[in-house]
Automatic annotation (TrEMBL):
GO molecular function: iron-sulfur cluster binding; metal ion binding
Domain ATPase BadF/BadG/BcrA/BcrD type, first and last residues per copy: 4-244
Alphabetic keyword roster: Iron, Iron-sulfur, Metal-binding
Domain of life: Bacteria
Gene name for this UniProt entry: hgdC1
InterPro entries: ATPase_BadF, ATPase_NBD, CoA_E_activase_dom, Dehydratase_Activator_Redct
Cofactor(s) of this protein: [4Fe-4S] cluster
Source lineage: Bacteria, Bacillati, Bacillota, Clostridia, Peptostreptococcales
Organism whose genome encodes this protein: Peptoclostridium acidaminophilum DSM 3953
The keyword Lipoprotein is annotated on this UniProt entry: no
Name of this protein: Activator of (R)-2-hydroxyglutaryl-CoA dehydratase HgdC
Length: 262
């Protein structure tokens, strides 16, 4: 069984192809170029799979940011929570954990017990706790996200709760002559403090982190002080697309079982 999974994010589109439970291909595109170069609109979004060099899959499943942006013709559509939980279940083999997914413009915290979703919390209203916040602050500091992600020692205090005001506060700290490493650590620690209130509503000792922010070593290091185990997925940015593939495999198995029953 060959499945195509697509996670249409606000900043990047991630794509995974899985055959008989094994990942064959993973790719990412900027969201704007993906819609411009590979999609058309005719009574719904239609994906040109030939232009992507993809064919011969048995089922395709999509998820992503914004209901109207992810309703692709010929795809089974599932919500982001379900896609990311399916991805985390498949990538970790665990059935009891907290899942933190930090996307470009939203944050999702999910409790999973015995393989089932039992509670969720979303933050889609403020950019200050999302990946976009880190991107903007890295731009202000004129360094890459990778460089900033490794700084955690002796962070400066950034107290602004608004992403826009935090940029102004950071510029003020630059003007004071504070060294770059402390500025970067301050940005990472401010992100951690913004996530803490959401995570505090969920009790658990194992935290799985997905999304591009999972690659921020400073942030996962801070989180490690609050949990017995913090797991960064091998493919954190592709977790939603991988989850779509596993959901497709489950649907296919269910249909085969129904045919046998009939």
């Amino acid at each position: 069984m060959r499945a195509l999974g697509i996670d249409l994010g606000s900043r990047q589109v991630k794509l995974a192809v899985m055959k008989d439970g094994k990942l064959e291909d993973m790719r990412s595109y900027s969201t704007m170029s993906f819609y411009r170069n590979y999609c058309s609109y005719r009574e719904g979004i239609r994906l040109d799979t030939k232009a992507l060099g993809l064919s011969d899959f048995d089922m395709a499943v999509s998820t992503g940011y914004g209901k109207n942006n992810t309703n692709m013709a010929d795809f089974v559509q599932i919500n982001e929570i379900k896609a990311h939980v399916y991805g985390a279940l498949a990538q970790t083999g665990l059935e009891d954990f907290m899942l933190l997914d930090v996307g470009g413009q939203d944050v999702k915290v999910t409790r999973v017990e015995k393989g089932m979703i039992t509670d969720i919390e979303l933050n889609e209203k403020c950019a200050a706790s999302c990946g976009r916040y880190l991107e903007n602050m890295a731009n202000v500091l004129e360094i890459s996200l990778d460089e900033m992600a490794n700084c955690s020692s002796n962070p400066i205090e950034l107290s602004s709760t608004c992403a826009v005001f935090a940029e102004s506060e950071l510029i003020g700290k630059i003007a004071e002559g504070i060294e770059l490493e402390r500025l970067c650590a301050g940005v990472n620690h401010s992100m951690y403090k913004r996530l803490q209130p959401m995570l505090a509503n969920f009790k658990g000792r194992v935290l799985v982190v997905s999304g591009g922010v999972a690659n921020n070593a400073a942030l996962t290091g801070y989180l490690a002080n609050d949990y017995d185990t913090v797991i960064k997925l091998d493919n954190p940015q592709f977790n939603g697309a991988i989850g779509c593939c596993h959901y497709a495999a489950r649907l296919a198995s269910k249909k085969v079982l129904e045919r046998h029953v009939e």
